[in-house]
Amino acid sequence: MGFIKEFKEFAVKGNVMDLAVGVIIGGAFGKIVDSVVADLIMPVVAAVIGKPDFSNLYVVLKGNVPAGTALADARKVNDAVILAYGNFITVAINFFLLAFCVFLLVKGMNALKRKQEEASAAPAEPSSTDKLLMEIRDSLKK
């Protein structure tokens, strides 16, 4: 029973639960970033430079693949060695957007934290009762 009790204490600790919540929210945030890239950024890029389709960008390193063949069909060609870099470009864009969003979030949280620290660090103005008591104390010292 000691092992089960110990495991239960470990699993219910705040750190494990915080980690679980972080993973779940991180997964949802990743979907939001994917949507931002696919639904907001790529249409703007398409309007400026044409409809980019990064998923079919690849280079044939070995083998005979006809030009203009889709990536899925090019992979079916026997003995073809393909460097498919298009999906990497999309994932890299997603990563940089996610990193930028997290940076902005952390920057905002740090700014709020600094404001709270400044507010708590500033000495409060003593009340009129406190001022009167300080005057009485000072006069008694004299």
From TrEMBL:
Its main location: membrane. Pfam families: MscL. InterPro entries: Mechanosensitive_channel_CS (IPR019823), MS_channel (IPR001185), MSC/AndL (IPR037673), MscL_channel (IPR036019). It is a multi-pass membrane protein. The keyword Transmembrane helix applies. SUPFAM superfamilies: Gated mechanosensitive channel (SSF81330). GO terms for cellular component: plasma membrane. One of its GO terms (molecular function) is mechanosensitive monoatomic ion channel activity. It is found in: Cell membrane. It comes from the Bacteria. The keyword Iron does not apply. The chain crosses the membrane at residues 82-106. Keywords: Cell membrane, Ion channel, Ion transport, Membrane, Transmembrane, Transmembrane helix, Transport. NCBIfam families: mscL (TIGR00220), PRK00567.1-4 (NF001843), PRK13952.1 (NF010557). Homopentamer. Channel that opens in response to stretch forces in the membrane lipid bilayer. May participate in the regulation of osmotic pressure changes within the cell. Belongs to the MscL family. This is Large-conductance mechanosensitive channel. It comes from Niabella drilacis (strain DSM 25811 / CCM 8410 / CCUG 62505 / LMG 26954 / E90).
